[in-house]
Amino acid sequence: MLKAVISSAENWKNYPDPECSHLREILSYKLNIPAENIVCGNGADDLIFRLVHCMHPRRAAVCVPCFSEYTKALEEAGCEIREFCLKEENDFRLTDDFISLLDDDTDIAVLCTPNNPTGQLISPELLRETAMHCEAKGITLLCDESFMEFTGAPETYSLLGSLNTCCVVLSSLTKIYAIPGLRLGYAVCGSRDTAMRLFNSGQYWSVSVPAQAAGCAALECDGFVSESRDLIRREREYLTEVIGRFCEKVYPSAANYLLFKAAPGLDRRLLEKGILIRSCENYKGLGKHFFRTAVRTHSENMRLAQALAETENEKRTLQD
Fold this sequence. Notes:
Layout: H1 2-7, H2 21-31, E1 38-41, H3 44-55, E2 59-64, H4 68-76, E3 80-85, E4 108-112, H5 124-137, E5 140-144, H6 154-157, E6 167-172, E7 185-189, H7 192-200, H8 209-218, H9 222-246, E8 249-250, E9 257-261, H10 266-271, E10 278-279, E11 290-294, H11 298-319
Helix pairs in contact: 3-4, 3-7, 9-11
C-alpha cells in the first residue's frame, strides 16, 4: 500500500477521479456487485451523513448503544429518532423485537454488525428478516459493516448476500487495513437510483488520489486480511481471559475490540500507567461501569494485562 501511495504522487497535481472508477471496478469484482451500485466516500462517516442528506428521513429507528455518528447525522437533519435498547442481560444482542419498531411511519432503520461498541454480530436470519420487512414497508435499511472483515466468516454474516432495493450496506477500508488517516469507505446500494442520489449528495472530489491508490492496493492484499483476522482472533481470546480475571464481565465480540464491565474510574487508573481504554459512559444504554479496549499486538495486550494486575493489587492494598 505504501508503494502504491508513493507511486501515486505523480498524480497529486491532478484532481482525483470523482467516481473512483478503478477502485469501484475492483470492489465490483471482489463483491460480485455491479460497480453502478457502489459509492466510495471519505470514510464511512462521510457516507452516513450523505445518505441522511439525500434521503431526508422524518423518522428513524436506531439501536442503542451504537456509533454516535448515526444519531448525530439524523439529529442534524431534524429527524425523529426512536431507540431500540439492546439489553445487557442478552449480552447486547439484537432480537427480533426490533422489527416491531419498524412501522409504516419509519423512513430509515440503522443497524451495525458487528455492533460498535459491543462487538456483537446480528444473526444472518434476523438480518434477512429485517431486510425483507423493510422492503415490504418501503423503509431504507442502513447496515454498517465497517468491522465485518474482522469476523471469521464475513460472507455468512454480511447483508450483501440478502441485498434488496431498500438496503444500503456500509463498509470501511481503513479498519481492517489499518489506514484510518487516509479516510476511505464505500456503500453498496441495492438500488442504482439510491447509489446515484448518494453520490450526488456529497462533495465531488471526496476521495483523494493517495486514498484511492491505497484502496486499490489494499484490495489485492488477501493474505494480509487473513493474517489480521487470525491475529485478532487469538489476541481477542487472550484479552477476554485476561480482562475476565480482573473485571466483572467481558462481552462476546466478533470485532477488534472488547466491551467489558468494571469498577468506575478504571480508565483513569490505567491512564496513570500509560494505558488508554475507552470509557463508554457517554454511550446511551451503557454507563460509567462500561469500557472498551482495542485488541492489539500480543506485547501491547500483555502490557494491559500487567497494568490490570497492578491496579487490582493496589486496590487490595488500600482495602487492607
